[in-house]
Amino acid sequence: MNQPKGLTAGTHQYRMAVAALLCAGLATFNSLYTTQALMPRLVQEFSVSPSLAALTLSAATGALSLAVVPASVLSEKIGRGRMLVGSAILATVVGLMVPVATSISMLIVLRALQGVFIAGVPAVAMTWLSEEITPKDLTKAMGLYIAGTSVGGISGRLIPSVALTWVSWQTALVLSATFALLAAVLMAVLLPAQRNFTPHRVTFTGEFRAMLTHLRTLPLLLMFASAFLCMGVFVSLYNFVGFRLIHHFGLDDAHVGLLFLLYLFGTLSSTLAGRANSRFGHGITATAGSILMVIGLALTMGSIISLTIGLVIFTAAFFLVHSTASAAVGLLALTHRAEAASMYVFNYYMGSSILGWISSFIFDAFSWYGFTAWLMGWTTLLVGCCIATLILWPKPTR
């Protein structure tokens, strides 16, 4: 009897693989978001505007988005495993250097460098799993990796913000970076050697043609636009809601850090996205989620209770839309799916970088209500993209 090609659930190697990818998500996404919850403190420490402090995140996500495609291409030559290990270790080592920054400019440069190294994990993690895990067990393994990225994002915000109660912002970042480095080392130890990888010769012309083909496919183009808008609005809100809670409602840094536990509602909604897509379809699910994002944003204009409820709805809806859109890309791209996935990730983090930074100037110039209205405008455009995708979704062939 032929053995299944790949690791199967219940085996020792499978458990090591999913544990390693979970640690990869913990390490890199902790590193990516580690300055987001510290922005009010960075404004105070460096005597800069919120828009300049926001560049500590936008520089990292922008550099990541630019490095995703090159990292994916490089992995075709050196292997997915080497890319995963090298990316996670280098990103977390740079994370230990970030706290030594003596100026906001130096901090931004180090964060950009960190973003370049982080890119290797989101660029190839899902490809590694799809190549090494048997198809029947792949969905579960993917879910554990995504859970790692979600928890990593929470820890990257929670550890430094809570630590600020007792220590300086530099020490808070060291604590967070140490956690990320330990997770990266554990990933390197646990990750099994690849058995199903074959190096490929990749040309710039071939990659360019594949991407151009995807850009000519309107439903895919709409999903790329949705990634840009969805993540741009999400990061913009979480970049500056801490200022609202501290300056308007009088909360301290530790309480603001606890706010990021609301991401757990997003973890829950992303696990339910598959059921919703199966029952209602990707277009309807994404449209409903984007409408809920608008409703959640509107609620953040009210009292602290209203704001909290709004954040719960907004966060859960964001993860629902993101999970649905990323799955839709895999269905809409009939060929060159790796390139399509890279383009989605590129637009996702480019939205975080560009729209997240532009939003900082709106926050500086207008009241919270004006800022929220700005985000609602972009989210309404997201609703339009989702509705258009619903209309243009290819009809099944008989």
From TrEMBL:
Stored SUPFAM superfamilies: MFS general substrate transporter
Chief localization: membrane
Keyword Transcription: no
Membrane topology: Multi-pass membrane protein
Limits of the Major facilitator superfamily (MFS) profile domain: 16-397
Residue spans crossing the bilayer: 12-32, 52-71, 83-102, 108-129, 141-159, 171-191, 218-242, 254-272, 284-305, 311-334, 346-369, 375-393
Signal peptide start and end residues: none
InterPro entries referenced in this protein's UniProt entry, alphabetically: MFS (IPR011701), MFS_dom (IPR020846), MFS_trans_sf (IPR036259)
Zinc in keyword set: no
Pfam families, sorted: MFS_1 (PF07690)
Keywords on record: Cell membrane, Membrane, Transmembrane, Transmembrane helix, Transport
Subcellular location: Cell membrane
Similarity section: Belongs to the major facilitator superfamily.
Official protein name in the record: YNFM family putative membrane transporter
Species of provenance: Corynebacterium felinum
